[in-house]
Structures are given as C-alpha cells and as structure tokens.
C-alpha cells in the first residue's frame, strides 16, 4: 500500500526532527528525504504553499548526499530544520 501524502509529510518531518535533535544523520536518510520531496512535489493534493519548503529540503538533502562531513552539514542547518518542520506542520495540521 503506498504512503498517502499525509504519511509522507509525517515521515519527512520525522527525519528532519531527528536531524535537528541528534545533530547527525546518514546519507540514506538524505536520499529518503529526496525521494519524499520528489513524490510530494508532483502530488496535487498538497497545499501548493509548501512547495518552496520542499525545494529547500531538496537542496539540503542534495548537499547532505554529496558532502564530505554530513554531521557538520546537519549542525549548520539547525535553524532551517526547525523552520521547515514548523512550516510543514503549519500546512499539514
């Protein structure tokens, strides 16, 4: 059974929250973020105002996939992580 866009948004915020709380993560989590964002961007059921946040998360995940020090990348993105989670929760709640 495929994930609904609500479940996808929940998974997206879970991963972002974990990155924020733990200040660390994995390349596979960044790849999962990218897959979720790609799927959500083509979903007609989501609030279109969330698209700029999804684009920023896509850039974050791409940089995370290609960085030599993922934990530093996550640590330097703490403020954005919080803003994205709050923004997504505002649109999906």
The helix tally amounts to 5
The helicity comes to: over 70%
Shape: globular
**Largest pleated sheet:** none
Weakly predicted, low-confidence segments: none
Descriptive notes:
- The chain is mostly helical and 93 residues long.
- The protein has one domain (5-92).
- The protein has helices at 5-22, 27-41, 51-66, 70-75, 78-92.
- Helix 1 (5-22) runs antiparallel to helix 2 (27-41), helix 1 packs antiparallel against helix 5 (78-92) and helix 2 (27-41) runs antiparallel to helix 3.
- The longest helix is centred in the N-terminal third of the chain and has 18 residues, at 5-22.
- The model has no long low-confidence stretch (mean pLDDT 94).
Secondary structure blueprint with pairings:
Layout: H1 5-22, H2 27-41, H3 51-66, H4 70-75, H5 78-92
Helix pairs in contact: 1-2, 1-5, 2-3
């Amino acid at each position: 059974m495929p994930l609904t866009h609500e479940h996808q948004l929940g998974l997206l915020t879970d991963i972002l929250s974990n990155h924020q709380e733990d200040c660390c993560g994995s390349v596979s989590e960044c790849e999962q973020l990218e897959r979720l964002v790609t799927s959500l961007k083509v979903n007609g059921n989501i609030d279109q105002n969330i698209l700029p946040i999804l684009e920023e998360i896509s850039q974050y995940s791409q940089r995370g996939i290609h960085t030599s020090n993922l934990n530093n990348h996550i640590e330097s993105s703490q403020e954005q992580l919080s803003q994205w989670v709050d923004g997504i929760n505002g649109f999906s709640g």
